[in-house]
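Allow me, if you will, to draw on your knowledge of protein folds for a short while. I have a record of one protein: its chain in single-letter code and its fold written as discrete structure tokens. Kindly check, if you would, that the fold set down in the tokens agrees with what the sequence suggests. Thank you for your consideration; the sequence and its tokens are set out here:
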Amino acid sequence: MVFQQGVPLHIWGWADPGEPIDVSLASASKHAVTAPDHRWSVILPALPAGGPFTLTVRGKSTMHFKDVAIGEVWVASGQSNMTYALSGASTGAEAVTTAADPYLRFFTVPKRIAVTPQTDTLPASWEVSSPDTAKEFSAVAYFFARELRRRLGVPVGIILSAWPGTAGEEWTDPASLRTDPVLQPIVARWNSASTSDKTFAAKPRHFSLEFDDFQLIPANPDSPPSVLSNFDDGSAHVSTGGAWAYSWSGASAATFELASPGRDAKGFAARISGEQTGSDDSRWFVNLHADGSPADLSSYSGVRFWARGEGSFVFQTIQPTITDWDNYGTKLTPVSSDWTEINIAFKDLKQQGWGVVHDLTLNQITGFSFSALTDLQDPPRPPSGLYDGMITPLVNYPIRGAIWYQGESNTGRAFQYRSLLPAMIHGWRSAWKETDMPFLIVQLPNQGHSPDFAPSWWAELREAQLLTQKSVPDTGLAVTIDVGEAGNLHPPRKEEIGQRLALWALGTTYAQKLVYSGPLYANMRLEGNRIRINFTHAGTGLASRGEPPIGFTIAGDDRKFHYATAEIEGDSILVSSPDVPAPVAVRYAWADSPDCNLYNREGLPASPFRTDTWPAATYSER
């Protein structure tokens, strides 16, 4: 593990009431007596960076935690772009091969929803960076940590507590959501949820699904169907050479078994059953070939099978060209208690729409998967559910700061995010009892296809992140408007993001003399028929890449924007348009995926901004 250097170290645990506990680390030791609630804790004095040490805890038994390092510890949190694996990053292949570093370490918090504060994570452990461990770890967090290791020369530990597809309110403490009038509608929506949905958030729910007699349906209607698997021989093999399997790591309280009898009261059927929580991902899948290689299904029009049970499922094809989980699939399909024939036509399958758009390549399919769900199908998660389940267990562990990559799930309520993100930061700082804890934000990259001059939720969410950096002390902003892809919610260029986060940390938290931010809008001044835009963090000067500055628009009192000409003058830009003789407002990079090219000479991009405060498109979406 890695402990934070330079601060008192909190060591805690559980034992029998009254049990004496002795804790030692390096040259420090402390004694405690376990309280009636089975808890004990000690505070050890601060230590400088170093190691390896052994942490020893002695009670009725003795535990030795070896290879303990003292250095810098950061929490990395957010949604899918924070969990995006290093192996999938554009520079990930090379990074993985050089990832062996005994003093770069990771801890991944298991997914958990809770409606009351938890004192411990689900079972997990620290891992030392290696090609095997790093390839599955967060790419953004890895590149951030690697840069700190290079620049600081001390051990670095990253605690990853993130979950794809989650909204900011799930990571926010309950008190902040209840007391802020802007955020109270979030709680009200949850309070109006069904009793079943709210119960599911607090305790597991049983499900049981059975499947039998899988067939591939030929595209030629005169040809008979091909048997894929019927389990009658008591095995999970399929006719193409592969086999059915189950992902127990995502749903430990559920099982896959062959149950007798199957359909028509003979043979076997595949049964997936057990308990599922909102944190679980119960996934049953088949590899068409034993080695996982693709099969050619282009001569087939679909799949037929029979199902029964209690619950629902999503069927998906698996093709190698799709790496962002947005596979072609069905909608949620409920299952009845009687055997029901289900026909799935490949032509009817669709991507969910949040990933990269791909063609369905039936000549390159590695298998199929079933996401098994309870009869509640896909219920909402409670606000604060991930704060209570995945943040509160960490708050006694001293850290230096946090990096945050989230917002995609809140774009439709971007104006509300202006209040939500500062509230979340305040709640985390209060929980860690660190009012100035550094909190570094990844501003959302370019993504989407908003028309010219149309309202943009993504632009408004970026503005909420920029305003948070300006209004909340000790926060940072890694601008990424140049590393995304219009059609890709999960852009692979993660190295620049991690490096820009690290630059902000190095330039502020660690007080190194370097340019750590791109240009940020400061103020405007009207100069005749032009508007002068002034910036902070201009570095050694403003610069545009490839051509004169683009991405600027300008408007008069009629609030109609026009493309503008922009000229760099020192640390400011003069913006004008012959179509707007009396300008009052300027916007830069104000679109989902804007064409823009303003940087400082150090190569860091300018943040999108607007000078006006005209009503936002998301103002009423709370």
